[in-house]
């Protein structure tokens, strides 16, 4: 039986994940007191194959009962019950924005600010996060992308790294994305903008991508970039980093950066990394002209 404990920061998407798991035939229970976990696990295992997948939602709404979680997990292991922990996280800024949009108060900030509640929760959950089997940072991903990650782990049974890598293109004229961890400038490459038949196309169009990648410097840059990232990524994972945002920029974010971003995404994808692809400014030039 597959027994999954779903926990993490309030507002990071636990409710959505439980719905996704339910859609793929998990028996889901939300906000169960940790002290009841061993008995519930025992009941599930006694069903003799009738229940093969179980997901339990646990968070700090359980109050003081949440403090019993580690003792309970130890008890589960002692009884021979295997379990996985799926931890959902998001940046403070994103969590604050979500709370403001829904006009809900944080469970730990009834008499204070949302920020204070988030800080208290992070402190409470830090040891749980360290023990997590999977960590998904939902700061920059869409609902459908989160569902894809859940399917990858629990349906396709693919290997999953607790490092979400976002590869994104941007235009320097619109500013470097604030969430960038690594920024690369490809304005040194020949610009398709000055070729009439390519000007209105983007790096997603084959003629543009073929033109950009026809140059030796483009291919060499890509190879060196992939080599560097393949060196860095294992070290980021080792140090516990959960999110890595790689930004590639050109002047307008339409041709060269899009081409190289797509190429990097495809190259890293071959090695099984958990990836997201974004093109921030690809349509901005055309919108500004209208």
Helix-strand layout with pairing:
Blueprint: E1 2-8, H1 14-23, E2 27-30, H2 37-45, E3 53-57, H3 69-78, E4 84-89, H4 92-102, H5 114-130, E5 134-137, H6 143-154, E6 164-171, E7 182-185, H7 196-199, H8 206-213, H9 216-238, E8 243-250, H10 256-269, E9 274-279, H11 284-289
Parallel strand pairs: 1-3, 1-4, 2-3, 4-5, 6-8, 6-9, 7-8
Helix pairs in contact: 1-6, 4-5, 8-10, 9-10
Could you explain how this protein is built, in words?
There is one protein chain. With 290 residues, this protein is an alpha/beta fold. Strand 2, helix 2 and strand 3 form a beta-alpha-beta unit. The protein is built from eleven helices and nine strands. Helix 9 (216-238) crosses helix 10 (256-269). The model has no long low-confidence stretch (mean pLDDT 88). The protein has helices spanning 14-23, 37-45, 69-78, 92-102, 114-130, 143-154, 196-199, 206-213, 216-238, 256-269, 284-289, and strands at residues 2-8, 27-30, 53-57, 84-89, 134-137, 164-171, 182-185, 243-250, 274-279. It folds into two domains: 2-154, Rossmann fold, CATH 3.40.50; 164-289, no CATH class. Helices cover 43% and strands 18% of the residues.
Biggest sheet, in brief? 5 strands, parallel
**Content of β-strand:** 15-25%
Name given to the CATH architecture of the largest domain = 3-Layer(aba) Sandwich
Please identify which CATH superfamily of the largest domain we are dealing with: P-loop containing nucleotide triphosphate hydrolases
Helix and strand pattern: EHEHEHEHHEHEEHHHEHEH
Please bin the fraction of helical residues: 40-55%
- How far apart lie the N and C ends? 57 Å
Mean pLDDT: 88
Highest CATH level, the class of the largest domain: Alpha Beta
Number of individual domains: 2
Under CATH, the topology of the largest domain is which?
A: Rossmann fold
Low-confidence stretches: none
Shape: elongated
- Write down the Rg: 22 Å
Binding site for GTP: 59-62
Domain RapZ C-terminal: 164-283
Protein name: Nucleotide-binding protein
Binding site for ATP: 8-15
